[in-house]
UniProtKB/TrEMBL annotation, chain A:
<dbReference type="GO" id="GO:0042773">
    <property type="term" value="P:ATP synthesis coupled electron transport"/>
</dbReference>
<dbReference type="InterPro" id="IPR006963">
    <property type="entry name" value="Mopterin_OxRdtase_4Fe-4S_dom"/>
</dbReference>
<dbReference type="InterPro" id="IPR006656">
    <property type="entry name" value="Mopterin_OxRdtase"/>
</dbReference>
<dbReference type="GO" id="GO:0016020">
    <property type="term" value="C:membrane"/>
</dbReference>
<dbReference type="Pfam" id="PF22151">
    <property type="entry name" value="Fer4_NDSU1"/>
</dbReference>
<feature type="domain" description="4Fe-4S His(Cys)3-ligated-type">
    <location>
        <begin position="1"/>
        <end position="31"/>
    </location>
</feature>
<keyword id="KW-0408">Iron</keyword>
<dbReference type="InterPro" id="IPR000283">
    <property type="entry name" value="NADH_UbQ_OxRdtase_75kDa_su_CS"/>
</dbReference>
<keyword id="KW-0479">Metal-binding</keyword>
TrEMBL record, chain B:
<dbReference type="InterPro" id="IPR016488">
    <property type="entry name" value="NADH_Ub_cplx-1_asu_su-6"/>
</dbReference>
<comment type="similarity">
    <text>Belongs to the complex I LYR family.</text>
</comment>
<dbReference type="InterPro" id="IPR045299">
    <property type="entry name" value="Complex1_LYR_NDUFA6_LYRM6"/>
</dbReference>
<dbReference type="GO" id="GO:0006979">
    <property type="term" value="P:response to oxidative stress"/>
</dbReference>
<keyword id="KW-0472">Membrane</keyword>
<keyword id="KW-0249">Electron transport</keyword>
<protein>
    <recommendedName>
        <fullName>NADH dehydrogenase [ubiquinone] 1 alpha subcomplex subunit 6</fullName>
    </recommendedName>
</protein>
<dbReference type="GO" id="GO:0005743">
    <property type="term" value="C:mitochondrial inner membrane"/>
</dbReference>
<keyword id="KW-0496">Mitochondrion</keyword>
C-alpha cells in the first residue's frame, strides 16, 4: 500500500474517480494514515487520447489494465508501457489518438483516476447520481447499461455486466451519446402554418388536424414508418392504428420495404452473441461489425483473433455458394461455421437471391443443425427485431410512392424523395415532446374515431403477447423455432453491384447521436484516416 | 410592522378535539371579520363579493374536514393564521389574492368540458400530462 501510494498524488478531492476509486478503497481499508515518504513525488506528462478519454498520467499506478484491454479486447495496439523504473509510463509512444470504437471502456477498467471520461470531467460526483438500469438503443446489440442521472439530467452512461451480450463493455457511441439527449428537443406539438413555419399548438388541436387529414385520404394511401429507436409498445399501437384505418403499409426503417417476417430465424442472431465464441469459421456478408455492432465485433475478435475478415462482393458469394472458392473448403471443414449477414442487405432489391445463396452455403457447410445454428443476421437498429416480430411489414413494395398521409414515428432516415409532393405530412420526431409515442397514437386513434382498446402499458403488453409472446419473455433469449429450411426457393438473380457500407459514420447513426456534440467531435477527429 | 391580528393567537396545544374545533370557528370568525379590510386594501370590490371570499375560506377549511388529530388541526390553524396575517398586513399583492382566492387553483383557463365531452378518461388525462 505504501509503495503504491508513494508516487500517487494526493488529489482525491479534485479527482473524478473519487468515490469509486479502487486505490482509495484499498487505502481506506489497508493503508496507513501517514506516510514515511519524504522525497519529491514523480510526475508524468498527460497524454492526449482523443475527445473521449481524459488522462492524468501522474495518477497512474502502472497496472497495465488499459494496455491489456486495448491489445486483447479492442484489438488496437495503441497503448503500451514506456520507460523503466520510476520513469515507467503508459503511453502511445508517438502522439496518437485512440481510435477504437471501444476506447471508452478504459475509463471503467482504470482502477485510479488516470483515465477518466472527458465529457464527464468535473460534472458530478458519483454518490450524487441516481442509477437506472436499462438497455442501449444506439445499435441492435442491446447492451446492458446503467444511466446515471442527477435530477432530470443524464450525466453519464456506464455498462452493466451481461456475459451473454456485452460482457462488461459498451461502445463509445453508447457511452457518450447522452449529450445528444439535451439538444434539439421539441417541447410542444407543432403544425406547419400557411407561411411554411412551424407553430406550436396544444395537443387537442394537433390531434384534430391529423385526424382530419387522415380521413381525407384513401386508406391505402396511409403509410406508417416506425423509427429505429421506437419501442415495441409504440410500434404495436402504430400497426393497430393503421390497420384499423384500413392500411397495412407500416414498417420500421432499416427493414426495407419487402421484408418478410414469417421466419424469425431470418432476422435474428441465431447462434446468439455469446454463441459466436463457439464458431470456428466466419463468413461475413455485407456487414462491417466493427461499425455496425462494435460489441459483436469484439466477440468475433475474441474468437478468431488471428484470422482476418475479408470483404466479399456478390460474385465471391456466388463462387462460395457454387463451391468454386477456396473459402468453401474452410467452411466445409469447420465444425461450427458461422455466417453473419448484415442488415444493410435488407435494403437491396436482390435480397432474396442473396439469402438463397447464403442458405445454399449454410446447407452444404452444415451450419444449421440441432446443436448449432450458425446462420446469423446482424441487425443495425434497435427497433428492427421487435418490428419484425410484431409484423411491421408493408403490404406493397411501393407504398411510399403513392402515399398521401405519412406517419413517421421518430423515423428520420427514410428516403422521402419518392413521396409525392402533394402528400399531407405528419412528421413526429423521435425526441418529440417528452410524451410516450404509444400514448400519442392511442390519443390520435380516439380523435380519429378508431379507438384502440388499450389505455395502459399493461394492456398494450397483453396485446403484444397475442402477437409476439417472445418480446415479453424478459431476461431470456428466445431462439427461433423454424429455420429457413421450410422457406420456398427463390429463383431471382443476384445483382453484381458490390455490397455497400451500411454505416458510414460509426459515431452518428440516429437522431440522438447526430445531435450530440461529443459524437460530432469524435467523427471529426477519429474518423480521419 | 405591527400585527393587526396579534390578539388572535394560536396557543401551542389543544387539549381535545372539541377545543381544536372551537379554535377553528374562532379562526373562521376572525377571517370573516377581516374580509372588509382585505377588500379595501387590495381593492377587490370590482372582482369579488365578500360572500365569495367567505365561502373560499370555508372551503379551505372543509378541505381538511377529515383531519381528527388535534395536533394536526393546531398546525393547520397556525398556517392559516400565518396566511391571514400576511394578507391583512398587506404582505401580499393584489394579484396574489386574485390568483389564489378569487380565480382559484385551476386558473383562468377553466375547462368547461364542452370540447372533451364524450372523450375517454385516457384522452382527458393525455391532454393534461404524460405522467399518468
Amino acid at each position: 500500500m505504501e509503495f503504491l501510494l508513494m508516487n500517487h498524488p494526493l488529489d482525491c478531492p479534485i479527482c473524478d474517480q473519487g468515490g469509486e476509486c479502487d486505490l482509495q478503497d484499498q487505502s481506506m481499508a489497508f493503508g496507513s494514515d501517514r506516510g514515511r515518504f519524504t522525497e519529491v513525488k514523480r510526475s508524468v506528462v498527460d497524454k492526449n487520447l482523443g475527445p473521449l478519454v481524459k488522462t492524468v498520467m501522474t495518477r497512474c499506478i502502472q497496472c497495465t489494465r488499459c494496455v491489456r484491454f486495448a491489445t486483447e479486447v479492442a484489438g488496437v495496439q495503441d497503448l503500451g508501457m514506456l520507460g523503466r523504473g520510476s520513469g515507467e509510463e503508459i503511453g502511445t509512444y508517438v502522439e496518437k489518438l485512440m481510435t477504437s470504437e471501444l476506447s471508452g471502456n478504459v475509463i471503467d477498467i482504470c482502477p485510479v483516476g488516470a483515465l477518466t471520461s472527458k465529457p464527464f470531467a468535473f460534472k458530478a460526483r458519483n454518490w450524487e447520481l441516481k442509477g437506472t438500469e436499462t438497455i442501449d438503443v444506439t445499435d441492435a446489440v442491446g447492451s446492458n447499461i446503467r444511466i446515471d442521472s442527477r435530477g432530470p439530467e443524464v450525466m453519464r452512461i456506464v455498462p452493466r455486466l451481461n456475459e451473454d451480450i456485452n460482457e462488461e463493455w459498451i461502445s463509445d457511441k453508447t457511452r457518450f451519446c447522452y449529450d445528444g439527449l439535451k439538444r434539439q428537443r421539441l417541447n410542444d406539438p407543432m403544425i406547419r402554418g400557411a407561411d411554411g413555419r412551424f407553430k406550436p399548438v396544444i395537443w387537442r388541436d394537433a390531434l384534430a388536424v391529423v385526424a382530419e387529414m387522415a380521413h381525407k385520404v384513401k386508406p391505402e394511401e396511409i403509410v406508417g414508418v416506425a423509427g429505429q429507436l421506437s419501442d415495441a409498445e409504440s410500434m404495436m399501437a402504430l400497426k393497430d392504428l393503421l390497420n384499423k384505418m384500413g392500411s397495412n403499409n407500416v414498417w420500421c426503417e432499416g427493414n426495407g420495404s419487402n421484408r418478410d417476417a414469417d421466419l424469425r430465424s431470418g432476422y435474428i442472431m441465431n447462434s446468439s452473441i455469446a454463441g459466436l465464441e463457439k464458431a470456428d469459421a466466419f463468413l461475413l456478408v455485407g456487414t462491417q461489425p466493427r461499425v455496425e455492432a462494435a460489441i459483436v465485433n469484439a466477440r468475433i475478435r475474441k474468437t478468431v483473433l488471428a484470422k482476418q475478415a475479408q470483404g466479399w462482393g456478390p460474385d465471391t458469394l456466388l463462387e462460395i455458394a457454387e463451391r468454386r472458392h477456396p473459402f468453401s473448403s474452410v467452411l466445409l471443414n469447420a465444425k461450427n461455421p458461422a455466417i453473419i449477414v448484415g442488415a444493410g442487405l435488407f435494403e437491396r432489391k436482390d435480397k432474396d437471391a442473396i439469402f438463397s445463396a447464403l442458405e445454399t452455403i449454410a446447407k452444404y457447410a452444415n451450419a444449421v443443425r440441432l446443436d448449432w445454428n450458425g446462420f446469423n443476421v446482424l441487425l443495425l437498429k434497435a427497433a428492427q427485431a421487435a418490428a419484425l416480430d410484431l409484423g411491421l411489414v408493408p403490404e406493397s413494395e411501393n407504398s411510399i410512392e403513392s402515399a398521401k398521409f405519412v406517419y413517421l414515428m421518430g423515423a428520420d432516415d427514410v428516403n422521402l424523395e419518392k413521396v409525392p409532393a402533394d402528400a399531407l405530412w405528419f412528421i413526429k420526431g423521435i425526441m418529440a415532446t417528452g410524451v410516450d409515442d404509444w400514448k400519442i397514437i392511442r390519443a390520435l386513434s380516439e380523435v380519429a374515431g378508431v379507438k384502440l382498446p388499450y389505455d395502459t402499458l399493461g394492456a398494450i403488453r397483453s396485446r403484444i403477447k397475442t402477437v409476439a409472446p417472445n418480446i415479453l419473455n424478459i431476461d431470456e433469449r428466445e431462439p427461433a423455432t423454424f429455420s429457413f429450411s421450410i422457406k420456398p426457393e427463390s429463383t431471382k438473380k443476384m445483382d453484381s453491384a458490390p455490397f455497400g457500407t451500411a454505416v458510414d459514420n460509426f459515431y452518428m447513426t440516429d437522431s440522438i447521436t447526430r445531435a450530440s456534440k461529443i459524437m460530432a467531435q469524435c467523427s471529426a477527429l477519429l474518423l480521419k484516416k | 410592522m405591527s400585527f393587526t391580528l396579534r390578539s388572535v393567537k394560536v396557543p401551542p396545544n389543544s387539549v381535545s378535539l372539541e377545543e381544536a374545533r372551537h379554535r377553528v370557528f374562532d379562526f373562521f370568525r376572525a377571517a370573516c371579520r377581516s374580509i372588509p379590510t382585505i377588500m379595501d386594501i387590495y381593492n377587490l370590490q370590482d372582482v369579488v363579493a365578500p360572500s365569495h371570499l367567505r365561502s373560499v375560506v370555508a372551503a379551505e377549511i372543509r378541505k381538511h374536514s377529515s383531519v381528527t388529530n388535534p395536533k394536526v388541526i393546531d398546525m393547520l390553524l397556525f398556517k392559516a393564521m400565518e396566511e391571514l396575517n400576511n394578507i391583512t398586513e398587506h404582505a401580499k399583492q393584489r394579484h396574489h389574492i386574485i390568483g389564489q382566492y378569487v380565480v382559484g387553483r385551476e386558473g383562468l383557463l377553466q375547462d368547461t368540458g364542452t370540447k372533451d365531452q364524450g372523450a375517454s378518461d385516457f384522452l382527458k388525462e393525455f391532454y393534461k400530462t404524460n405522467y399518468f
